[in-house]
Amino acid sequence: MSQSNDPGHFFQTDAWHSETARRAAKSKNDKGNPVKLPSKILAVAADPHDDSLIYVAEAAGTVKRINPEVEKKVVATYTGPEAPLTSLAISHKSGKLFAGCWDKTIWSWDVKSRRPGQRFRGHADFVKTVLVFTLQGRELLLSGSQDATIIVWDAVTGQRLYTLKGHTRGILALALDPLEYDPAKEEAIVFSAGSDREIRRWRVGVSAGKEIKEEPFPILAHETSVDLIHFDSDGDLWTASADKTAKCLSRARNWEEDSSFEHPDYTRDVAVDEDGGWVVTACRDENVRVFEKGSGKLHHVFEGHFEEVTALVLLRQRVISVSIDGSVRTWSLKAQELAKAIQEAEDEKEGKVEEKVEEKKEGLLTLEEEEELAALLEDSD
User: Fold this and answer.
1) How many CA atoms lie within 13 A of 77 on its CB side?
2) CB 360 within 8 A of CB 27
3) Using one digit for the tens of pLDDT, what is the confidence trace for 338-373?
4) d(CA 261, CA 165)
5) Which strands make up the sheet holding 199-205, listed edge to edge?
6) 177 and 188 in contact (C-beta within 8 Å)?
């Protein structure tokens, strides 16, 4: 007897039907000049060689290079994986693109030719985060996995150099400390964070690495999973967590909390526009929020996505957001355009404007795969 994965063929509650109808209606909006892709988007990264381009990782197993400002927005597509891609890193030196995958490996491609390169095998579970940098002329690739380990690889040969252990649950984020980094030095400082809510620090060299066990050890700034960490130009650490906050941890005060930004749901990403003085966050409630960096006051909420916003990237006072809804949206942080967006939102609430609509494209995952993906994204206990 044939089986169906169509959710419409199963019993659903009134709440489910109501939510489905709400999302279907919202999916037709054109806010943020959306680039519609056929699959859920799990990660985004800026192109280090061209500040008009980004890379996005899809649940369908492809990476796309996109220019949101031109008519033919998808510039290149990188294929090979048959499982969702969770994370991206692009090499400044070798021109390679790396993507962590559900299949427990890291895939790589030559950016220009789009040909698949080394495939890095060694983790026992999903690869959730990747990081690439150079030390003493040698390019290193770091990968963090749901198996609670960090593996350090030779990014060129694919050789597994060594493994770092310390986390008790899955690792969700890696960040290179920019104030301590010098490619000519023997070591770099890398921060890691994950489902165990801990932020740990590591000395990473070409042949060996070790954990930094100076206080605070580990750094405990959140109540549950830390999904994202990155540094600003002052060397302070920004974090996004499933405890519904984004935070700034002060380097000068030994990683104590400097500021906290509250949300109604899980916070997936945080970006800092230092030119404009904005803190921008991605939230599971489908919205992109803009806070005043100095005061912490909520300035504006960009509403356009109709499912969870998974990641952000900044490009010249524009923030690019990607979502489970399969869209890439662009929001301006320039003062005049931000003021215009705020006025348009107020007019819409008062019924003064009629929203433009576009057709929604369906995703490529089966019902079972969507449930597995949702469970993975919500692993925050």
Assistant:
1) 12
2) yes
3) 999 999 999 888 876 555 544 444 445 555 666 666
4) 31
5) 171-176, 187-194, 199-205, 209-211
6) yes
Q: Tokens 């350090």 identify what position?
A: 152
Q: Are 174 and 190 in contact (CB under 8 A)?
A: yes
User: What's the N-to-C CA distance of the chain in angstroms?
Assistant: 39
Residue 29: predicted pLDDT: 87
CA distances from 118 to 60, 147, 151, 157, 220 (A): 20, 21, 15, 7, 36
pTM, to two decimals: 0.88
Residue 76, amino acid: A
Got the DSSP string for 220-246? ---SS-EEEEEE-TTS-EEEEETTSEE
pLDDT digit string, tens, across residues 198-257: 999 999 999 999 999 999 999 999 999 999 999 999 999 999 999 999 999 999 999 999
Alpha carbon distances (Å) from 368 to 6, 127, 145, 363: 10, 20, 22, 13
Contact 226, 199 (CB under 8 A): yes
Residue 331 CA to chain centroid, in angstroms?
17
Q: Strand pairing partners for 46?
A: 54
Q: What is the C-alpha to C-alpha distance for residues 74 and 224, in angstroms, rounded to an integer?
A: 36
| Residue 36, strand partner residues | 327
